[in-house]
Design a protein that fits this description.
The protein has 302 residues and is α/β, with parallel strands linked by helices. The protein has a single domain, classed as NAD(P)-binding Rossmann-like Domain (Rossmann fold, 3-Layer(aba) Sandwich). The chain contains eight helices and seven strands; from the N terminus they run βαβαβαβαβαβαβαα. A seven-stranded parallel sheet has the order 3-2-1-4-5-6-7, with helices on both faces. Strand 6, helix 6 and strand 7 form a beta-alpha-beta unit. The longest helix is centred in the middle third of the chain and has 29 residues. The two termini are 34 Å apart. It comes from Caenibius tardaugens NBRC 16725.
């Protein structure tokens, strides 16, 4: 990697990060930011060279993500996989370890952006929503824990949502997200439970979420055009902050990006790590429970 590409802020040099759902949106942004911090990123999604026919989101491929990383001077490997398929999950992890030498950081980002009212939600959509936002993150985490233990360190980062907090009116109200929100709430509790289990093994488990929402290809159909969203760079910077300290110093954190950046004076860089973004404060209408939730974390002993 060229010396000029070294980013400001935490260094992930020498680490391998596996980022799911990285063909577009938040996953792509996190992969770019981790690469700019020096990590070798292994990016995965269903779409390798072209969008998957019949997929929920039609744009973005892993090749495009890899090309963006490499154009900026970073290193990336693309491995296509359907995370709903157990054989694909096993093959993904085997290939990631074989091609990259191991996994230091797992980012559970892949998701399914389809909402439905509880009364009429099809059983198949119920199962897929729980799969994407709870069961698959658990199974991938379970699978990487043994080799993280063998390496003596590890970081698991789950992507959360403000929807996991109590329903609100105004900007915070989204109808039809009940099962999604409940799954994200379960993911937050899973994060803190795994943090408690794994701290002694120096495996940090944290959750990051937007303070409002990030406008991505996957969310374009459920985020109104006039909804005030936040820059994805804030979320990527928060994820980076969760991916470098030992578990004895930071684990079990539920971090909402704009709030976390404001409360910790986090410097937010562009995805290539070269520029500093202007400081932005969380909006006044942000969910009032965020401030409390973001301070609740597992307190244990290394």
């Amino acid at each position: 990697m060229e010396e000029s590409y070294a980013s400001q802020g935490p260094s992930l040099a020498g680490k391998v990060a596996l980022v799911t759902g990285a063909s577009r949106g938040i996953g792509r942004a996190i992969a770019q930011r981790f690469a700019s911090a020096g990590a070798l990123v292994v990016v995965t999604a269903r779409s390798l060279d072209r969008p998957v026919e019949g997929a929920d989101v039609a744009d973005g491929t892993l090749r495009e993500t890899v090309e963006l990383v490499r154009q900026a001077g970073g290193s990336a490997i693309a491995i296509a996989a359907d995370l709903e398929n157990p054989d694909d999950r096993a093959r993904l992890l085997e290939a990631a370890v074989s091609q990259a030498g191991g996994i230091d950081i797992l980012v559970n980002n892949a998701g399914l952006t389809r909402f439905a009212a509880s009364e009429t939600m099809p059983a198949a959509l119920l199962e897929r929503t729980i799969d994407h936002y709870f069961r698959i993150p658990f199974l991938l985490s379970q699978a990487v824990i043994p080799q993280m233990k063998a390496r003596g360190r590890g970081w698991i980062i789950n992507l959360g949502s403000v929807a996991a907090l109590r329903p609100m009116t105004g900007h915070n109200l989204v109808l039809g997200d009940t099962v999604y929100a409940a799954s994200k709430a379960a993911l937050a509790r899973l994060t803190q439970g795994l943090a408690a289990e794994l701290q002694a093994d120096n495996i940090a488990v944290n959750l990051v979420a937007p303070s409002t929402a990030v406008r991505t290809p996957g969310g374009k159909d459920i985020i109104p055009d006039d909804f005030p969203t936040e820059d994805v760079e804030y979320l990527a910077a928060t994820a980076l902050a969760m991916a470098h300290l030992p578990a004895s110093e930071r684990t079990g954190q539920l971090a909402f990006s704009m709030h976390y950046a404001n409360e910790t004076d986090l410097v937010v860089h562009s995805l290539d790590g070269r520029d500093v973004l202007p400081r932005r404060l969380p909006p006044d209408w942000a969910h009032p429970d965020i401030a409390f939730s973001s301070r609740v974390q597992f307190q244990g002993h290394a």
